[in-house]
Amino acid sequence: MKSVLIAAAVGLIVSILVTPLAIKAFRQHGFGQEIRDDGPESHLSKKGTPTMGGTVMVLATVLGYLVAHLFLLDQEGRGVTKTGLLLLFLLIGLGTVGFLDDYLKIRYRRSLGLNKTAKLVGQLVIGVTFAVLALIEDGSGPAVATTAVSFVRDIEPLVLPTFLFVAVAYLFIAGFSNAVNLTDGLDGLAAGCSAMVFASYVIISFWQFGHDCGSALATDGCYTVRDPLDVTLIAAAAMGACLGFLWWNTSPARIFMGDTGSLALGGLMSGLAIVTRTELLLVVLGGLFVAVTLSVVIQVGFFRATRRRVFRMAPLHHHFELAGWTENTVIVRFWLVTGMAVAFGIGLFYADWLSITGL
Predict the structure, then answer these.
(1) Which of 129, 172, 262, 272 is the right S-S partner for 184, CB 3.0 to 4.6 Å?
(2) Cα 187 from chain centroid?
């Protein structure tokens, strides 16, 4: 438990202390955010706010994980695991795609960076590589992932062919990384919601660690997962990094996470869901991200079919802004929705364990 607290604390401290240094450096180099011309007019005043703050969040998460391992190695003889490295690969890889997108926006002074094809290709390479490596057994335990469809644990009858699992895993990773990216439209919205989802995975993975089928104390309702404590450390470090960044990102934001942060965080969420065997549960835990994405899909599809709009503006948070809600009202209410979704998701996870154990 001490190592989990250390991971969260280091992620928080690094993020909260390094972010103002990043703000100063990015201002000096002119790394300011370009604002969409078709967005709410109230957002035009945010033009020039430093962006690419996601680089600090990625750094804080990695350092939180590694520093926590120094204590694990000393006290429990546990080293860095394959699961941990794969999750870091997903975080850094998608963060790199986002960084390139942010850099092109700044370099050419436009609100769009990488074109859709280039971004999807980058997500494809990272997502497929993660999925393939996660299925390879290395003799140190079960594979990091399984091809079974999962909700709160693997649904054994629903097992996908390997090629289909890889394709679905890619769509899942790309979908959630883009979902967080779409939600990152108001000060502190994506960072606050992400912190809550990562907190839920701290609880879920630590519970799996205490009820691991590979443990001598395994009982009914145990979980066949790989390296659950390492997963907890990464989730805790990411939660701390989001909270530290939120200190500087709340309205009025002094820095934005940019695609560097949103793609990395969304990718890490999906990776945590895959390795904990809770893919479909993430749809509940991250219900707000799903709703925001659906608002864009519905808006675009309905407009192309009828030339009319369902929402005043998509994504969903802009609809409520144009409906008269203040930015802070939208943010806090969306945080509340995420909190309720997370509580409901954790309740479903725990109820499954109770139903199996009969307690």
Answers:
(1) 262
(2) 17
Q: Positive or negative CA dihedral for 285, 289, 293, 298?
A: positive
For residue 252, is the peptide bond before it cis, meaning its omega torsion is within 30 degrees of 0?
yes
User: pLDDT tens-digit profile of 274-309?
Assistant: 999 999 999 999 999 999 999 999 999 999 999 899
DSSP 227: -
How many other C-beta atoms lie within 10 A of the C-beta of residue 170?
A: 21
Contact 147, 153 (CB under 8 A): no
Please provide residue 75's backbone torsions phi and psi, each rounded to the nearest 5 degrees.
Answer: -95, -35
Structure tokens at 266: 């969304």
Record the tokens describing residue 159, joined without a space: 């097992």
pLDDT digits (tens, 9 = 90+) for 33-45: 655 555 555 554 5
Task: Report pLDDT digits (tens) over 4-50.
Answer: 999 999 999 999 999 999 999 988 877 766 555 555 555 545 666 88
pTM for the model:
0.93
Query: Which letter does DSSP use for residue 124 in this model?
Result: H
**CA distance to 7, 9, 227, 322, per residue, from 58 (Å):** 13, 15, 21, 33
pLDDT score at 111: 60
**Structure token pair of residue 260:** 């560097």
Token readout for 136 is: 């390879």
Helix residue ranges, H only, the chain: 2-28, 54-75, 82-108, 116-135, 162-183, 189-210, 228-249, 258-275, 279-285, 287-306, 316-322, 327-357
